[in-house]
């Protein structure tokens, strides 16, 4: 993918999209954090150990979703609306994934499409799938 400095900048842009954004993190295909984190001044709702488990599970889930690309088309993002937060994941090149969280009151419809524009250069090339 890109160098870690570029990825950190993208995560920073995403957390700055809206005051209700909580985090933007890029996870590699093995479930390891490569860039990003919580918005400055906010604490994570989960422990570091829980983060690691969530990242591994997310990486697996993103890979598994490719199984249905032929039937339904490519996944652009997935979202969970939870009691405490909104969590969105955006598949990137090389089975990496952007994991974003926001407060429940955020306008997730608008934010998700703004994020898609920001991560477009980091998605896999259509030519690369042939």
Explain what the structure shows:
This protein is an alpha+beta fold and 130 residues long. The chain has one domain: Beta-Lactamase (2-Layer Sandwich). The protein has 4 helices and 5 strands, in the order αββααβββα. Mean pLDDT is 86; it is low at 126-130.
What is this entry, summarized?
The protein is an alpha+beta fold and 130 residues long. Helices cover 35% and strands 24% of the residues. The protein has helices spanning 4-15, 48-65, 69-72, 108-119, and strands at 21-27, 33-38, 78-81, 85-91, 97-103.
Give a topology summary.
Elements: H1 4-15, E1 21-27, E2 33-38, H2 48-65, H3 69-72, E3 78-81, E4 85-91, E5 97-103, H4 108-119
Antiparallel strand pairs: 1-2, 1-5, 3-4, 4-5
- Name the average pLDDT: 86
CATH architecture: 2-Layer Sandwich
Unreliably modeled segments:
126-130
Q: Supply Rg.
A: 14 Å
Descriptors:
single chain; 130 residues; alpha+beta; Beta-Lactamase; five-stranded antiparallel beta sheet; globular; disordered C terminus
């Amino acid at each position: 993918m890109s160098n870690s400095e570029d990825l950190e900048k993208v995560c920073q842009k995403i957390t700055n999209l809206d005051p209700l954004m909580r985090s933007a993190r890029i996870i590699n295909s093995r479930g390891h954090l490569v860039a990003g984190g919580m918005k400055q001044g906010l604490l994570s709702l989960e422990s570091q150990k829980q983060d690691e488990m969530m990242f591994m599970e997310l990486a697996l889930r993103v890979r598994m979703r490719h199984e249905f690309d032929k039937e339904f088309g490519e996944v652009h993002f997935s979202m969970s609306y939870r009691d405490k937060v909104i969590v969105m994941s955006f598949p990137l090149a090389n089975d990496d994934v952007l994991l974003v969280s926001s407060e429940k009151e955020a306008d997730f419809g608008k934010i998700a499409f703004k994020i898609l524009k920001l991560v477009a250069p980091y998605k896999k090339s259509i030519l690369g799938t042939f």
